[in-house]
């Protein structure tokens, strides 16, 4: 005897098993999606720093305001002195952001120009170079995005040697 297609009794007999399988599939899929969503939320919160991942010994990056940023300008005309001073300053943790030539090469004494009015920063750099503090000039300029300008004079040998010597 052949069964007719579309007989409601056939569907009624298979319906409870199919319904159980469908429900089980949706439950498993929902659990997997929920676990994945929790993982993504945890990762995002950990990445932006809201959740501490337990690395209490991790060294924190230095705050940008704590960095001393300077430009070094050659005012004596001797090639290589700017690179020499840049190396010395970077070894002391000072960020040299720009190098170049001063408007003239007739500068007798090396001097610092305080660009932001932070005289204590200028004093620290002068001390690190053994530069006399009377050679610190304060010239606030809000258009400069650095702390100091160092102009190298003909007395550079008193403070540092040019690179390669």
Task: Tell me what you see in this structure.
It contains three helices and five strands. By secondary structure, the protein is an alpha/beta fold. The protein folds into two domains: 8-57; 64-158, Alpha-Beta Plaits, CATH 3.30.70.2390. It has a five-stranded mixed β-sheet with strand order 2-1-5-3-4, covered by helices on one side. It starts with 7 loop residues before the first helix and ends in a 13-residue tail after the last strand.
Q: Structural class, please? A: alpha/beta
Q: Secondary-structure element order, as H and E?
A: HEHEEHEE
Helix content: 25-40%
| CATH fold group of the largest domain | Alpha-Beta Plaits
State the distance separating the first and last CA atoms. Answer: 107 Å
What fraction of the residues are assigned to beta strands by DSSP?
15-25%
Mean pLDDT: 82
- The tally of strands reads 5
Shape: rod-shaped
* The number of domains: 2
Biggest sheet character: 5 strands, mixed
Q: Which CATH-level-2 architecture of the largest domain?
A: 2-Layer Sandwich
Unreliable residue runs: 60-65
Rg calculated over all Cα atoms: 35 Å
User: Which CATH class of the largest domain is shown?
Assistant: Alpha Beta
What's the arrangement of strands in the largest beta sheet?
2-1-5-3-4
Quaternary assembly = single chain
Number of helices: 3
Features:
165 residues; alpha/beta; Alpha-Beta Plaits; 2 domains; 5-stranded mixed beta sheet; 3 helices; 5 strands; rod-shaped
Question: What would you say about this model in short?
Answer:
With 165 residues, the chain is an alpha/beta fold.
